Known about the structure:
The structure holds two protein chains of two kinds.
Chain A: H1 29-41, H2 67-78, H3 86-94, H4 100-109, E1 114-116, E2 120-121, H5 122-133, H6 142-147, H7 161-166, H8 172-182, H9 198-203, H10 212-227, H11 242-251, H12 265-274, H13 279-290, H14 297-305, H15 309-320, H16 334-353, H17 371-385, H18 389-394, H19 397-409, H20 412-439, E3 451-455, H21 462-471, E4 475-479, E5 488-491, E6 499-501, E7 510-516, H22 521-544, H23 549-558, H24 563-571, H25 573-587, E8 593-596, E9 605-606, E10 611-613, H26 617-631, E11 640-647, H27 670-680, H28 683-690, E12 701-708, E13 714-716, H29 727-749, H30 761-773, E14 789-793, H31 795-798, E15 801-802, E16 807-811, H32 821-846, E17 859-862, E18 866-869, E19 875-876, H33 881-884, E20 893-897, H34 900-908, H35 911-918, E21 923-927, E22 934-937, E23 943-945, E24 955-956, H36 959-963, E25 973-975
Chain B: H1 3-24, H2 31-58, E1 64-74, E2 77-85, H3 89-110, H4 117-136, H5 140-158, H6 165-196, H7 201-204, H8 213-229, H9 247-256, H10 260-268, H11 270-274, H12 277-300, H13 304-325, H14 328-347, H15 352-362, H16 372-377, H17 380-391, H18 396-415, H19 419-425
Antiparallel strand pairs in B: 1-2
Helix pairs in contact in B: 1-2, 1-4, 2-3, 3-4, 3-9, 3-14, 4-5, 5-6, 6-8, 8-10, 8-12, 9-14, 10-13, 10-14, 12-13, 12-17, 13-14
Amino acid sequence: MSAQSENPHPTPCLPTASGAACQHDSARPIDHLQHALKHAAHYLPAQGPIGVFVHHNTLHAFQHLPFDQAVAQAAQLFGTEPFLSEEAYQTQRARGRILESDIDAILGREPDAQILPGRLTRRGLRRALLVPGVRQVNGRNIAWQIEEGGLLESFRSDLPPTAARALASDLPENLWNICCERLAPSVPPSPPRAPRRPRAALLSLPEPLDLDSVVHPPLIRLTGAFLDQGVAYWPMPLRELGLLGAVRKIMAQSGSISREFLDTVPAELRRQEKEGLDAGATALQMLERLGVPEDDWESFLTAELLALPGWAGMVHCLEIDPALAPHEKVHASLLDFLALRLTYTVAALEKILGNARSWRTLQQSIPASDPLVHRARLFDSAQLLGLDSHTLLGLSDPEFNTLCTELESFNSFERRRVLHLAYELRHERQILIPFSKHLTSPVPKSERLSAQVIFCIDEREESIRRALEEVDPSVETFGAAGFFGCAMDYAGIDDPRGVSLCPVVVKPAHAVREKARSEDTHLHGKRQALRRAWATLVRHGNISSRTLVRGSISTALLGFLSLFPMAIRLLSPLSYGRLARKLNAFFLPEPRTELQFMRDDDSAREATAGLMAGFSIDEMADRVASVLGPIGLRTGHARLVAVLGHGSTSLNNPHESAYNCGACGGRTGAPNARLFAVMANRPDVRNALRSRGILIPDDVWFLGGYHDTCNDEVQIFDLDLLPSSHRSDFDHLEKVLDTARALSAHERSRRFEAAAPSIPPEKALRHVQERAEHISEARPEYGHSTNAAAFVGRRSKTRGLFLDRRSFLISYDPTLDPEDRALAAVLGAVVPVCGGINLEYYFSTVDNEGYGCGTKLPHNISGLLGVMNGYQGDLRTGLPLQTVEIHEPVRILFIVESKPERVLRVIHANALLKEFLENQWIRLASLDPDTQDIRVYRGAGVWESLSGSEEPLPVAESSRSYYSGKIDHLPVARIVPDLSNVA
Amino acid sequence: MNPLLIAIIAAPAVLFLLLGALWLAGFTLPERIVARLTTSVYALLTVAVSILGWRLARTPGHSIHASLGDWFTVGDYGFPIELLADTVSFPLIAATVILVGLVGSFSVRYLHRDPGFLRFFLLLNLFAFGALLVFASASMDLLVAGWEFVGITSVLLISFFQYRPEPVRNALRVFATYRLADLFILLAVFLAHHWAGSAAWTDLFGTGAVSGAKTEVLAILLVFAASGKSAQGPFSGWLPRAMEGPTPSSAVFYGAISVHAGAYLLLRAEPLVQGSHVARGLLFAIGGGTALVSTMVHRTCADAKTSLAYASQTQLGIIFCEIAAGWSTLALLHICSHAMVRSMQFLRAPSMLYDHHRIHSASGGTLQPTGEHLESLLPKFIQIYLYRVALGRGFYDAIVDRWILAPARSLAGSLRIFEPDWIRIAPQNIESKSPAEPTHTAESSHA
């Protein structure tokens, strides 16, 4: 999990807002162009190459706006959905996930007004339109609905009783006639407007032509070839000239046949080359030829770049940070991309219209809104409001107009907004009320601690933590951000170069390397030589199956051989995995390793990378303290403290990185956990920690480990260093961890239809292992799907609560933090991270085609950078359908254990957190550490006490008995292993 | 009469009809049932095919026939339903059963919860039936029936995601290409009946009914028909468009079975092809030319599936050349072997990142650059020109768009002036309430 937390971009000028605030007096057009491009680029997806998937707020460009305004503006700009569909919310209402009282509560927060004095208020009107909900009206089939569909035969059958009574003596036909009569076609046809893009202009021609289908294929092919990271056997020549430079040399070749409408492109490219135009000058000339006035540049460029957002965004990402390119450094430039796009657009327009400028004069007719639709809506609303034909006829003109205006203003967007708020309100109460009940009788903490285990805050670790505590109540668990304070540039023994293992906003300054132990160096040498030979063999095998001469030999003679491994792999993935591991262990035995992380000389810097080798003692103590301090583990350590990083392995899955630990930059956190443990075991570090108020007794041993969230494997490192005195403690911990991971796998399996509901935990473990090894598995795990809450506070408050893997758990001890320093550090890190994950899931769920990347099934990896649909489409960003299909799109609810005013002070002191909170991108509640009082933040400094107790707190003997056989989201429950102990 | 052979060919059709009938009758079939039925049927078929293979292997040169009599007869003409498994058709029958079975088992997981789950399996089974019919038919009549099943299922799976315009647009293009190429095989069947009174393979070869110029004509027609299915020569260029469907359908159609059906047709009609010098020359030119262009295009493809599509096209070109040279055993081996390796590569296409990363790190971070011998051998300007040609995919689409589709479109456009008159004289003249929406047909050709 992770998120892009910083907001380095300037506040953008929205195309809809007046640009006055952003008018820069740029003397030179090129400066103005750069400025406009910068703003336009702001709306492009910020997702870089897919090998490192970093979750972030999909609408980061709109984060300076309140949530509901932001989703509305984004919906307009991108053509996307702001919320789920009205039907989806109504389905949730039908199954009790939204209560009528929630809708009333939300409507009650908003100002009321008299619509028909004495008869109808705004709240009444809105409520009637939400319960039981308006019918969707489609203008095209109303005539059919009337003639064949029985629209006028009877009133709706699901009307509230009062409305049904009011209409009892009326006839639908009369009401319809009155609706038609009173709602004369008053809507004037909207005047034709100038098209925003040349494409829109050409689509309005008598013989419409899709300009994008002319321009995009060559543009996609050229950009794809230019950015390619190693798919093509023959990389694009002249890439060093940049995209525009290379294209000018390649596409300007004579003796080639251009596609329809693009004949003049080679000549135009030659002209640009001859005149020595750079990308900026080219773009300016093209804008000139297109006749776009300077004032419109920004909105024009935004619209043009958003026609192919994936590719434009990738170019932009690689321009900002070329180090994101996994293999080939390319000189990507959005200005190059723009100049190329405009060159092709101008060439095509000149060919089609004879002149690139005239598109602006083509009037784009707007389909007139159908008066029938308005009548049908009024007809439907009148039924819901219980207004019969007599009443409707009797309304005065001003009254009738007020009614119509009010009905129009509560349009689909507004209805969905209210339904969404009600949906979130019920979620809030389903969490907070049971939680407050649980707080009244906390689960007693065991006197004797057998071990402590520190996990990542990730909500996917909630189940294994709970299972551990259930299996052995003397185990205590903690949650800390999964890079465990160790921001580093790390290379394992098998890695060719170092990668950053820390949140993406941090640039690591320290390098840590894994080295083979001196007694195993010969093994390491042998292993590397064999791996190199293997790599050469496989690579040549891959290449030679595809080329002409080598291909005909290898496919004709050796092709059969590929059938057998694939058949085993498909029919029995687990045994294939076992076989592969055995072969690996036999041919490529792994040397024992150690981390190189010590630095004696402070000035020792690797000159090239600007990295310091390792850490000094003080730096190590700082890092250990930065984790142990906030989670409250200053004293009272168990004899064994395990630190588990996490990651995820799966096959045939381009989105694998999205399942990894984002606090480690979309990679696994295993090396961080290992390093943390080694550092914390050093006597000199423990000495230095004493002055920081952290007292670790000598008989405490730290273990580093790794938890795979996909196959639920747990691995512990450096066991040979474990003192013999701790051996029996470890044996116990290992046994407990083994049981717990099987239980956790079992709990995860309840969501998978492929796992039978009745399987025992050991089989569930095999099932999740098989998912990780299966090459046809589109959902190796569900990732962060269903995430909905984050608890910042002591584990003792949530211990024994079944949170259904839906809550991030961040350990924080408010009693040890009088100055709120730890709170500021914790919230500063976790709000953007968890918020980013949650919002990415939100948007990919509410509009999977618009914000997400659609279904995985037709995905095609392009250039090792991303996936596209089919053979030449846009790069798809966001999350695939298979990842979000069970997600409940609600904004994350943070519950912070501290005094409300202190939480607010800390959040308001940090501009980014303030933006997240006050613009309602997250929800917030506080838990008073002394009084256990829960308050919910309602914005603008207002806290509301939690009241009411309509949500029960189910009690169960074990998690397994609670969730067993259920596949849906489950309410919070209290797990009490032995019911006789309940006070 | 061999019931085993009939059972093998008929099983996918029975499964298709069964699932289809249940679905039409309003049953919602759970995925589990569809999956179990399909996998167990193909497991049984694999056993049946092994038995068939064993029987064939026992007596070298032996072939297995099965006849179900005539479907219908009109005067002298009968539509015989005759099946044949011999050393040419058996390897492909076996490959089809095994690969469709494997891809089916892949798809059970891959398409889990997709709204089109049942539709996919229906089409997969219908395709398997069509392909088996192509391979096992003893006459061209029956082969054409299978040929059309393969074609239509291929098109329907390309447009599997019907709610997006691109797949539908590309499927339409593939469909048009197929139909055009199918004209040649239909013409061949017609002429065979005209000349030999039968389209059974045995009646066409060596009976003297077809000889000389007639052989040339039939062989040439078959070469063009085969080119359509195998994406060669004048009908190349549709293969990358077919990558819009789900990954497993790309694997079984364009990596494995469907694209090889054309090459099989030529192997089946080998006596005819070998009897015609023109056809062999044409085959050399088409196969060789396609292989050269495709391998060049393949080199520049930056995405996983297009790269595989052109790699397939390259090998198919070589297979055509092998057939032209008369090396039919090699060609058969090449077809089966290539089908296996390519379909498996398609299934693994989503792993490309993972595989590349593994190889990259195992090699110590420095991969030997590829494509260098080309650079060292050719002068720079030729290299860049070749790159331009490859990036333009041999200008195939540009040529077709400009000189075939555009004239056809303008012809259609000019014919449209007659339409209003026809509408006016139409008997059931309905007063049109709103002006008809502009047609979007023009768009389809620019994809």
